[in-house]
Amino acid sequence: MKRTLALPSLAVALMIALAAAVAVSLSAGVPKASAYYLANGCDEYDPDRGITYYCTPDRTTFYTPDGINPNWVYPGTEGKSFGDDLGGGFTINDNIGIPPPAPYVAGRDYCSNPEWTWTMFESEWQVACYNHDVCYGSQQGRLYCDVTFYKEIIAACKANHAWWLPMRYWCYSDAGDWYLAVRIFGGSHYKPRQTSYEPRGS
After folding, report:
1. Residue-range domain boundaries for the chain
2. What pTM value is reported for the model?
3. Phi, psi (deg, nearest 5) at residue 37
């Protein structure tokens, strides 16, 4: 009859303790996550900047930095000044007689911006900038154009930085700055397109 040897309980305890120590030492070398999805799997929190990005109820985008759900703002909604909620007027049908826009041309710079809002993500936002220019020139409603712009650049951040979270959240932060810039300073650019050479880009 063969004898089966069992490890003494002290040896088993020592092995478990050693495995736990190795696991702890390995985990110490892993950097902490720089960004987190919140419990609902849609809201996101950037601990480096202390910013929470809250999803809209349909979970397709975030509320704007001034608290507007882009999906609740319809074409024609103006919001002429910063701080307007859903705007104070409508421009539906005001685009009658406006020439059609020039087509998008890859390689052109459609993102004009003041120096204080420079961003490395500008190249990723060119289509959104073009669409924003077309929206303004077509008089589709200034608030509508601005919140749609924010929605599109946030979508670009998500698409281009799906896995590298620090860069993704930097992109979100710059997107918020650009949105606020167009809300505050975009009024003088909200005017009908004059020719089909617009938007030109550079």
Report:
1. 72-189
2. 0.76
3. -85, 140
